[in-house]
Amino acid sequence: MDRENDHLGSRTARRSLRHLIAENLRARVQAGELRAGAQLPSEPTLARDLGVSRSSLRAAIALLEEDGLLRRQHGSGTYVTHKPLLRNDLSRNFSVSAMIDATGHEPGTLLGRSAVEPAPSDVAEAFGIATGSPVSVLRRVRTAGERPVVDTTDWCRCEVLDPATLLELPGGSIYVALTDRGHSIHHGVASMYPTVAVGEIRKRLNVPPGTLLLTLFQVDSTADGVVALVSREHHLASAFDISVYRRGPGDAGVDHA
C-alpha cells in the first residue's frame, strides 16, 4: 500500500510540475520576455535553465500548445503564437465570460444593449410562443484581453429577466442571473454552423467582410425542461480552438459473429 501511495504521489508531483513549468513560461510571455513570434530556446537549454527534465518541459509545452500560446514547428522549434487561441470545449455548458476567464484572458464587454423586442421565428419556436411575442433581448460583444471575439444575442422571457436586469448582470453572466431567480440551467442543446462576418456583426467584431465565424444557436432549459434562455453566438473562428468530446463507439458496430 505504501508503494502504491508513493506511486500516486509521484504521479501527482509530475502533474503539478508540468503545470508549474507551464505557468512560468506563460508569465514570461505575458511579461513580454517572450514576445509573439519569438522562438523558445532549444529543449536542452530551456530544461537546464529551468532546472527540470526534458520530459517535464515537453509536458508543460504540450499544455501551452493546447491553450494556443505556443506552437511547435517540426524541424524548426517552438514559437510563441501571435494570437493565442481560446479553448472552447463544446461538450461543457458555461458562460462566454467563464470560458474566456479560464484561459487567463480578461473577459469584458465592448457593447451592450437590452430591450423588449418581438421574438424571431426560431426563438419563438424554442420558447413555444407565437412569433413576434415580446421577449427581453441582450446584445453584447464579448472580449478577451480587449480583443472582440464573440458577438452574442440572448433572449429570455420578460417575466424572468427584464431589460434593466440584463444590463446589470452579476459577474457578467446571464446564467448567474437566471440561477438567482430560480431558473438554474440544467442543460443546453446547441447547433453550430459556419458563417461569415457581414453587416453589423462585422462592424461589432471589427473584422474584414467575409471573416469566418462559427455560429452557435443554443436553447437552455431547466431541470424540468422549461426553456429559460435562447442564444445566438457568433464566435471569431481564428480566435478559438474548438473541441468536442465524442463517446464510443465501444462495441457498437463490432461484428462478434
What do these coordinates show?
The protein is of the alpha+beta class and 257 residues long. Helix content is 32%, strand content 31%. The protein is built from 8 helices and 10 strands. Helix 1 packs across helix 3. The chain is elongated and about 65 Å long. The relative contact order is 0.11. The N terminus and C terminus are likely disordered.
The percentage of residues in β strands lies in 25-35%
The largest sheet, given as strand count, sense and whether it forms a barrel, is: 6 strands, antiparallel
User: What is the CA–CA distance across the termini?
Assistant: 43 Å
Strand order of the largest sheet: 4-5-6-9-8-7
Briefly characterize the structure.
It contains eight helices and ten strands. The chain is α+β, with helices and mostly antiparallel strands and 257 residues long. Residues 1-12 and 252-257 have low confidence and may be disordered.
Topology:
Blueprint: H1 2-30, H2 43-50, H3 54-66, E1 70-73, E2 77-80, E3 86-89, H4 96-102, E4 107-118, H5 121-127, E5 134-144, E6 147-156, H6 163-166, H7 174-180, E7 187-196, H8 199-205, E8 212-221, E9 227-236, E10 240-243
Parallel strand pairs: 3-10
Antiparallel strand pairs: 1-2, 4-5, 5-6, 6-9, 7-8, 8-9
Helix pairs in contact: 1-3, 2-3
Key traits:
257 residues, alpha+beta, 10 strands, 31% strand, disordered C terminus
